[in-house]
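Hi Y.,

Following your request, here is the sequence exactly as I used it, all 827 residues.
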Amino acid sequence: MTKRPALRLGLLPTLGACLLLSSVARAQDAEPLGVATPALAGVRSWLTDSWATLEVTVVNRGREDRAARVVVFFPDRPDVQYARDVWVPARSIRSTSMLLGPPPLEATLASSRDVEFLLYDRTGGQERLVLPAGQERVRARSFLYHPRDPITSTLLDQSEATFNTVNELTPAGEEAVQLLQTFRHAARMKSLHVEMVQDRFLPPMFEGFDGVDCFVVAGRRIADDPAGARALRSWIEQGGTAWVMLDLTDPDVVARLLGDSLPFQVVDRTSIVRSQIISLALGSKEQSHPLEFDRPVDVVRVLVTAEDQVLQTINGWPAAFFRPFGRGQVLFTTVGARAWTRERAKDDPQAPPGFPNLPVPLTPLEELSRRFGVRPEPLSIFTEALEPIAVGEVGYSVPERGLAVLIFGVFLLAVLGLGIVLQRQQLTIAGLAGPAAAVVAAAVFLFVGNATRHAVPPTVAAAEIVHVAPATGEQVAAGVLAQYRPEGGVLPVSSTEGGVLDLDTSGIQGQTQRRVMTDTQAWRWEDLALPAGMRLGRFEHVVRTGEPLSAITRFGPDGLMGRVTAGTYRELTDALIRGPTHRHAAIRIGLDGTFSAGTEDLLPPGQYLADVVLTDRQQRRVEVYKRLLTRSGPEQPDDRSVLFAWAKPPGLPFAFEPEARTADATLLVIPLEFVRTQPGTHVTVPAAFLPCLRVFGDKIGNPITESGTAADMRLRFQVPHSLLPFSVERARLVVKVIAPGRRFRVAGYDGDKLVELRAVDGPADVIPVDITQEALLRLDDKGALYVNVAVGELPAQQEGNGTGGGGSRWSIESIDLEVEGRTLPVE
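Below is the corresponding structure, written out as tokens. Let me know if you'd prefer a different format.
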């Protein structure tokens, strides 16, 4: 068995506090307040370049209740401090948690970071520094530090006795940890270390999970930790990856994690002695070899929903599936750890150093490591695009150039005129005229500048993005804040709803800034003095919408129709839908939340709003769409259909000056939830919802869109699963192709036979092809329709006239397929 350290880290401050409390019988003039050395708590046992959770314990030896404050900071940046206010009853010990910001970037590359902490007695409204006993004048300790690297934290079950004593893992726990180590090895991570959460409770703030890349739930401890489950859920929504091992977890744990509702149905629990995990990836041969076990392996058999994507099966039941959750995702595995690995044989590669008994990952585990073993995209990718929106709402201005030219012109004419008039009469006065005119001009500039600066009131403008998790009434928002003040001074910033706000404090280094936590979700900045002008900041916070946000849709005769439930968000405008083809359709959302998207609403590539004339605000929103939707890689990991809409949010959780004007906007990203259309309904499926892939042999990939040689492609168009079974009655293929000197051909499939539909020589524009033959409109057993497109060889006399591949290059700018048909009864 793997043995853990005899004492968990959180026990050290408690022991120290007990020692402090035992000194109450000492001298009568002993200091009533004392503090134990803070310890790292939560999901990591070392510092890295992210927020961390500290456990602080304060002791009150006196006979009266005391108000205390613990202040923590890095010696390299003593001006940036983090504090926690604690009320401690008489003759008692109080332990609580607080946040510690990332270590300074300018610190040396050492394996540890020093942290100093102060204790203040704030009883009676006065703040008095409490010095440590003895000769030491500074309280300090060192924490281990590792540069940012993928971190896997796991929550295993522990008995009540093991929290404060020797912690030995159960056999199932050991197997889970070994599986995670093998997973990290298959993902080619530098370290195979798996962090095990030793504290009884998880951090109650989502910031406490900062720095973790994958959090693994392999037990039911979280069922008794509602605050920790809520914080973990918020962390997943903002881009985290959670792995739930259902063979070690109960359904109520999953329900608590995902918002008090179980999205899938657990049929039963069983065990197997022989298994083979098979991948469901189209065209994939990823599967494990059949295994036999000397001890049975637990399996949980579940029925998944349409929102769950099954990746692998075992004996016909899901073995691994995942569901998107906001920006993040939750991976579920239903079979025990031993089904994913095998023992290392003599002819296998050497085990990594320090792990001689590490098993060999089977092919399905390697497939999971390629998909879930990567670091999530940072939020900065999304928030940077919102900066122009926030700045544009401030309305900050400077004196116009024409006014400045006018003042300078009047000044020069005045000096010239005074010089001419006074040069022959009073030379002394003439010599003073120039400086006097300069003083007057400067005064005018000061007056105009001051008037312009005060013309804009103190303003706080925010632009945020919310990747909606439909199953919960809490959403995580992240964005950019622009704060403008015409006068400098101390800026009051506080929150009673949690969240993180990182304001730009450049130019005020050396001035003490203290972030004080007064409760789990309450904090404020003290002594934050900023000069006049504009300041930007980035923030994250949890929005409690009261009800889940959703976009329920179905296909009808004219295309897609649905209804948005936006909760506390109002005035949804400038909306569009992005289908799995990554094509966009412009929509208008009614006051009741209804919308529709038909063929005529499909936007050309590069266009994001249907309006011809755009306001300044719309132009800024178009730039946001462009940056978010045209960057490399899919915006959603599973290419879901998503609704984007700008909305008026319920407000920010951060409080500034009471007289400050506020302006905020939210971009909602809501995954579409498709419900099945009634059987016998005639429907139209717009091209945005029929993804196209190229099938070649037993593989599948994206179509070739540009080349210098001939190409023959079998294209697969997937009908939405909410329509299946479905009978296609008509299809229209629209291809925009440029192939000078080549023959472009479109054909359908009648079984294995190709039936030519249209051929064009030297195409240079859009080519529409109608498909009406019943034999060419049959779907396969997975609901896919196949079409063939081919670009011919360049004629011999034209060879060498172009570039690349010995001939002129051709390109396909878009391939769209729209179908009409009728839904069929489910057999």
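Residues 1-29, 160-166, 632-638, 802-806 have pLDDT under 50 and may be disordered.

Thanks again,
Q.
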